[in-house]
């Protein structure tokens, strides 16, 4: 009888332990993870595709989310969060790659942005494989990616549940509806940037753009600046800051200011063309192709 009880108790304990482990593993696997990790894979895939027929889109997340390269003939979208695109320009210059056109999304906070060392990276099969493995670990592991562990431990909500790129570099994004106050978060972020706007650093960075633009102009590349639309709140924050007279000098092939276009294309946007309204980037890209004579629909 004692033997039977021991076996029964052991069996019950084993079953409960397995059940608890199963529930724990299921909870961990189903927990939301930070999905914004495919940056370097994107560069590995796109950089080798740039040639003299390409239309290169550069800039921060406004370009990344707000313009669809898939709608523009020969376009590749290099837009990245917090990027000013200088590293891509330097790589193209250093490797004598002069595309048909370069469109750079401008914001007055561009001097605060950092980049992804595109000009200091190798683009070959071995680097691509290493980068792809690192991306998969960052995207799926709690131990490898500290952000995922923080989300799990503190039960935080990531801003995005999915953040991937198509073959043209366009962002394919699923926002997290449970993320608290995304609109106010962006307003606070941009208000903070406006309060510490540094006109000296701003002009220094634009001077670097001007120097690079001369190189591309000599090789018949259209070097163009665009100012993507934002909602009224962000517009009022940014409007006093840019120096439009100087921008026309920097972007030697023209500077297209769509800053206040939100009024005709919809009010449900903030920060950039697509953070709240998925269809906005499609509509704006159609408008961009129609407005810019050197762009063709794909």
Characterise this structure.
The protein is of the alpha/beta class and 298 residues long. It folds into two domains: 1-30; 32-291, Rossmann fold (3-Layer(aba) Sandwich), CATH 3.40.50. The protein is 47% helix and 11% strand. The protein has helices at residues 2-30, 39-46, 61-66, 86-94, 125-140, 146-154, 182-195, 199-218, 232-238, 244-250, 262-265, 280-291, and strands spanning 55-58, 75-77, 101-105, 160-165, 171-175, 222-227, 255-257. The termini are far apart. The mean pLDDT is 82.
Give a quick summary of the entry.
The chain is 47% helix and 11% strand. The chain contains twelve helices and seven strands. The strands form two sheets. The protein has a five-stranded parallel β-sheet with strand order 2-1-3-6-7.
Core attributes:
single chain; 298 residues; alpha/beta; Rossmann fold; five-stranded parallel beta sheet
List the helices and strands and how they pair.
Layout (H helix, E strand, L loop, with lengths): L1 H29 L8 H8 L8 E4 L2 H6 L8 E3 L8 H9 L6 E5 L19 H16 L5 H9 L5 E6 L5 E5 L6 H14 L3 H20 L3 E6 L4 H7 L5 H7 L4 E3 L4 H4 L14 H12 L7
Parallel strand pairs: 1-2, 1-3, 3-6, 6-7
Antiparallel strand pairs: 4-5
Helix pairs in contact: 2-5, 4-8, 7-9, 8-10
**Shape annotation:** elongated
Structural class: alpha/beta
Q: What is the residue-averaged pLDDT? A: 82
CATH architecture of the largest domain: 3-Layer(aba) Sandwich
- What integer value in Å does the Rg equal? 23 Å
Q: Give the number of DSSP strands.
A: 7
- The run of helices and strands is HHEHEHEHHEEHHEHHEHH
């Amino acid at each position: 009888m004692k033997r039977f009880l021991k076996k029964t108790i052991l069996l019950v304990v084993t079953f409960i332990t397995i059940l608890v482990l199963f529930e724990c593993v299921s909870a961990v696997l189903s927990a939301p993870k930070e999905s914004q990790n495919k940056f370097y894979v994107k560069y590995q895939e796109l950089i080798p595709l740039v040639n003299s027929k390409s239309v290169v889109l550069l800039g921060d997340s406004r370009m990344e989310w707000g313009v669809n390269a898939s709608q523009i003939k020969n376009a590749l979208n290099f837009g990245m969060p917090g990027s000013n695109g200088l590293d891509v320009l330097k790589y193209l210059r250093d490797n004598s790659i002069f595309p048909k056109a370069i469109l750079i999304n401008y914001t007055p906070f561009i001097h605060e942005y950092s980049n992804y060392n595109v000009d200091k990276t190798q683009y070959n099969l071995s680097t691509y494989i290493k980068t792809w493995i690192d991306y998969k670990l960052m995207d799926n592991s709690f131990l490898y990616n500290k952000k995922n562990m923080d989300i799990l431990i503190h039960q935080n909500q990531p801003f995005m549940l999915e953040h991937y790129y198509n073959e043209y570099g366009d962002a394919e994004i699923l926002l997290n509806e449970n993320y608290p106050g995304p609109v106010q978060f962006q307003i606070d972020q941009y208000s903070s940037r406006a309060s510490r706007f540094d006109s000296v650093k701003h002009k220094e960075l634009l001077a670097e753009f001007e120097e690079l633009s001369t190189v591309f102009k000599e090789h018949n590349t259209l070097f163009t600046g665009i100012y993507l639309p934002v909602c009224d709140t962000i517009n009022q924050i940014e409007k006093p800051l840019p120096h439009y007279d100087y921008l026309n000098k920097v972007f030697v092939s023209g500077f297209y200011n769509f800053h206040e276009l939100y009024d005709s294309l919809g009010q449900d946007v903030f920060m950039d063309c697509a953070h709240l309204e998925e269809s906005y980037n499609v509509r704006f890209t159609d408008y961009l192709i129609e407005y810019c004579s050197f762009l063709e629909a794909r």
